[in-house]
Structure formats: structure tokens, C-alpha cells
Amino acid sequence: MPETKILPFIILVAYLAAASLYPLQLRWRRPGVQHVAFGLTATAFALQSLFLGYRWWLAGYLPVTNLFSTQFFFSWALAGVYLYFELRYRIGAAGLFVIFVNMLLLISVMGRDAALPPLIPALDTPLFTLHVAFSFVGYAFFAMAFSLGVLYLLQRRTGTSRLPPLAQLRRLNEEAIFLGFACFTLCMLFGSIWAQVAWGYWFSWNIKGVWSFLVWLFYSGMCHAKFVRRWQGTGYAILSIAGFGVVLFTYLGIGLLLSSNHPLE
Amino acid sequence: MFGQRLWRFCCSLKLAIVLASTGTMVMIGGSLLIPAYPRLFGPMDQLPLLAWWRSLGSQAPSHTWWVPVAGLLLVLLGFNTLCCFIDWLLNLRSRWRKTGEYLVHLGFVLLLIGYLWGSISGLRTEGVRITIGQTIPVPGMSGHYLQLETLEPVLAKGRQIDIIADLRLLRGDTVLTRKVARTNHPLLQRSLVVIPLSFGQQVVGFRTLFPPLGTVHLTPGSRLEIPGGGELRVLAIYPNATRRPGGQVIQRGESAGRPAFLLQLHSSAAVPWQGWYLPSEEPAPPALAVAGVDLRPLEPLYRPFGLFTITLDPGWPLAAAGATSMLAGIVFALVSFYAKRRRGDRPEIY
Fold first, then answer.
1. Predicted complex ipTM
2. Within a 13 Å sphere around the CA of A146, how many CA atoms are in the beta-carbon half?
3. Please, are residues B264 and B232 in contact by the beta-carbon 8 Å criterion?
4. Is there a single domain that holds both residue A141 and residue A69?
5. Which residues partner with B130 through β-bridges?
6. Could you give the CA distance from residue A252 to residue A136 in angstroms, rounded to a whole number?
7. Are A196 and B193 a contacting pair at CB < 8 A?
8. What's the CA gap between A68 and A115, in Å, rounded?
9. Which of A1, A11, B343, B345 is the most buried (most CB within 10 A)?
10. What is the span of the domain harbouring residue A258?
11. What's the pLDDT score for residue A5?
């Protein structure tokens, strides 16, 4: 399929153009620049959604079974989460980190095999689709929380008018954590039910299972920490950054460095 | 006064954060040992947790201490969460808007209790072999039986990708449930899960040349009328066996090789004779030779069998209730979150 090479490239170029315009908008503060940047991001996301939908239609299942597909889906989820915050709060350049990770993922899929293999029976269940989809959307929200946490610390240090005010960054961070936690809880629930019907146990002591529970426990703690004065604001931003470290290790670290029952490939 | 202070402590948010973060740190450190000691930690999914601890975990406490410590911290966290939930129930009139969040709390508590219950009194047996038509007792469920009706492997390029097993669960003679089980579609009956894993075939007898009668199928229980009068009964068959110097016949494996037949000869002229006959290794025993019995095994007779994992997890129904509560809680919390945002009703805590 030649479109598997060309389309991700076109999508990447659109995201790249948008990502270049956002910093310019920070400098010039012209609404027109932000509109164009937003339009490019929205167009890229629409193309990416169409491509994902097309591959879903071709395969007959949500294509998230190999590295090309999972990274492409994660990239789509990141862009979706960015657009969610952009549409609701006009965060503009505040979400650049998410777009940056999104582009890295798109670049990494370029040389990979985009084939759509027949689905093996073990993965042929809606529980698998829901498990993976909610997992990546949850990760995307946690990536956004990381970005907002870094910006919070930056804003606290610089007090610049180019970034959103601290109160807004804090509120957005809390929202990203809450939505990420909600999605990740759904991912864990569907994954557990799937494990029960596929293997007869609903919690696995495989390192991936343990760390997924740790991610859940960490972010459930964060959902509570916002009610503790000491952890509000700066503490919460630091936790968002640390939490994304746990997420990265769970998704990439374990997949690349250790053997688990959730291989990346 | 003390009672109130104790209750506030048990419901304390700070206690929850301390327990959760300590548990997280303990599990982060401990879990990194999992890939380093696969023989120690690998069987954790093959056994209920308590059975694993008794058989393996307790043998290497320097590597596994973190499992009971994390377990204790999680139990305390579960107790703290339960107290929070009860406290919310007691103040439901003023805090009903937090229904979603507290359903998640309840779900977590139920999941934790379900897991503990299953870990303590659960049972998991892997590689249970059932041949077609066979009925076996269900491990851990007295009076319950599992019957395999049919078995159909699904192959792709010579590799097994699935297996379809028609199973019946019986209590005594009563069929409780019937399920065509395959990958992701196990036989589920409350706390019992039966999953087809693989298949194979076992030698149950031999197609044998028996000169006076021609070709016969010999399996344990077969009876042959001998032309001169009398009857030959097949009591047992070893598909591959040898006779030791002392005369003892031992089985060498389950695949077909040099078979051994445990036979019983009844004839009106002599007293019944019983003994092993290894036609590929030795001439017929004198009693058989006199009766004109000369067996020549031609090819093995196979009967397919399925390999199953049978798990009995008494905590599963409770865990399923917990998952349902958590799912409902998440949906409620999301709806409530956006409703509050639309109303501008968002508590700012400084």
C-alpha cells in the first residue's frame, strides 16, 4: 500500500508546519497565525483519523497489533488530546510537547512494516481493542499533563505573559490527570476481563502487569493529591512529570529492556 | 472522642497517600527483580498467590519479601478506602455529587477483597488432559465433572492457532452448563474457568494382525474369540515398553514404539493365564503359543485429547462486581465532571 508511506509523511509535514507556527504565534501574538496553526493541526488530525479508519476498515479490526500500528494510534491519540485542550481552552503553544512527541512517533513509523496481518484468535475480541485504545488515550493525557507540569514550573519561575497563567495551567493539569486516570482505569478493567477469559486470571504478576497497576496507583494518588494543600501547584506539576516517567518506563522501558507479556512488536 | 479521632485517621486522605506511595515504592523496587529471577517469579501466574508463596516465594525471602510487604500495604490501603466509602455513605445527603468517585472506591475495595479471596482459596491446574468422551472430576469442586464432547483444532500453516472444545459441566448426572469453548470464550461457571489450551493424541491401542481372525483393533477391554475355543482379553496396553531382566514390564513413553499387551487367556482346557506379551521383542508366551495366539501390531490407534487450564477463583464474582462498580463510577465521574464544568461549579482549594 503506497499510501502507508505517503499519508503519514503528509500528516507529519502538516504537524511540523503547525508546530513551527505556534512558537511564532508566541512571539508575534497574532490571532491569524494561531488560526493557521490550529487549522493545520486539525487537518492533520482529520487526515490521520481517515487513514486510521481506512486501515481499520481494511483489516476488520482496530489496527494496534504491531509497532507501526500502535505508534500510529498513539500519535493519533496525542493529537486528539491536544485538539481537545486547544478547542476547549485555546492552549496554543502550551501543548507543543504533545505535538512534538506525536511527530517523533510519526517519524519512527516511517520505515516500519505497515502490513495488516490477520488477527490471531487471542487478540480477536473487543476487549483487546478497548484495552489498547483506552491505554493509549490515557497515556496521551498523561503526556499532556507532563507538558502542562513542565510549563507550570517554567511559568512559576519566569512569570511570562506568553504562557497561560498558573491557575489555568494547574486546572488544565488536573483535568489531564483526571481524564487520563479515567481512561487508564477503563484500560485496566477491560484488560483484566480479557485476561480472565483468555488465561483464567485477571491480574498478571508479569512485570508489565505490575507496572500498569503502579501507573494506576500513582495517578489515583494524584487524583487525591490535588486536595492536599502541600501537593497543589508545584508539587502537582512535579508529580505529573514523575508520573510520565513511570508511564514511559511501563510503555517503552519494559517493552525494550525487559521481556514481558506485552511485547512492543 | 478517641473513637472519632480514630475514625478520622482511618478515613484520612493523607493516610491513603502515604500507603499508596509507600506501596508504589516497594513494588517499583521489588518488581525489577521479576525479570531477573524468572524461575522464582514466572510461576506466579500459574498458581494462586498463597500457593506460590508456600511453594516458591517463601524459599527465597531475600528476593520476595516485597510481595507480602506490598500486599500488607495494599490491604491497609483497601481498609482506608473502605472507611472513606462508609464515611461517604454516612454523609450521602451532602456528598451525593461524588457518587462516581466513591463507586470507584467501592470497586477498588471489592477488587482487592476478590483478589485476596482468590489468592487464598483459589486453585489453578494447568495441562489437564481430557480425551474425547472422557469425564473427569473438576479439581477442587467435589461432585462436579467435566466432559469433553468434541475437539476441533484450528490450524494455519500447520500451526495451531485455536482449539474448539465442546465441554459439559456436570454436577452428578445433571448438566449444569454446556459451552463450545475456544480462545477468549472459556467455559465460565461462577468461579470456575475452563480454557482450552492445546491438543494432542494419545495411543489407545493397536491395529493388530491376528492370523486366525485377520486384522483386529486391540484396545484395553477388547475380547477376542479364539478359533480353538476360549477367549483372549486385553487388560492393558503400553504403547512403548520393555521387559527388564527380572521380568518386570515397564513403560518407556506415551508415543507408539514397541507395545506391550497385558492379556488374559480363558480356555476350557486349561486354567486362565495372565501375563505381558511384547510381540516386537519376544516370542509369544507358551500359554498363548499353545492356544495359537500370535499378535503382530501394525499401527497405533490414536484418540485425540485436549489440554485445558482449569481455574477455580472464588474471588472472581466479587472482583467482577468491583469492576462493574468501578466502570459505573468512571462513567458517573466523567458525566459529573463535565456537568460541573458547564455550571462553573468547580471547587477551588487553596
1. 0.89
2. 21
3. yes
4. no
5. B306
6. 12
7. yes
8. 9
9. A11
10. 120-265
11. 73
Shortest distance between the Cα of A40 and any Cα of chain B, in A, equals 28
User: What are the DSSP E strand ranges found in A159-254?
Assistant: none
pLDDT at residue number A232? 85
Write the DSSP symbol of residue B59.
Answer: G
pLDDT tens for each residue of A181-197: 999 999 999 999 999 99
For residue A227, give the chain B residue with the closest CA: B349
CA B194/CA B201 separation, integer angstroms: 20
Is the Cβ pair B337, A178 closer than 8 Å? yes
Residues in chain B: 350
- In this prediction, residue A264 carries a pLDDT of 56
Q: Which of residues 47-106 of B touch A (CB under 8 A)?
A: 104
Minimum-distance CB partner of A228 among B14, B23, B311:
B14
Closest by Cβ to A203, choosing from B16, B115, B184: B115
User: Distance between CA atoms of A243 and A238, rounded to whole angstroms?
Assistant: 8
- 8 Å CB contact between A219 and A177: yes
**Max CA separation in chain B (angstroms):** 106
Label each residue of B142-193 as H, E or C: CCEEEEEEEEEEEEECCEEEEEEEEEEEEECCEEEEEEEEECCECEEECCEE
Query: What are the domain boundaries of chain B?
Result: 2-122+315-342, 124-201+305-312, 212-293
Alpha-carbon gap, residue A183 to A137, rounded angstroms: 7
User: Which residues from A are below 8 Å from B35, CB to CB?
Assistant: 207, 258-260
* Boundary of a domain, candidates A118, A153, A172: A118
Span A11-39, average pLDDT? 85
| Ramachandran sector of residue B276 (left: φ over 0; alpha: ψ -120 to 50; beta: rest) | beta
Q: Which of A118, A138, A156 is at the close of a domain?
A: A118
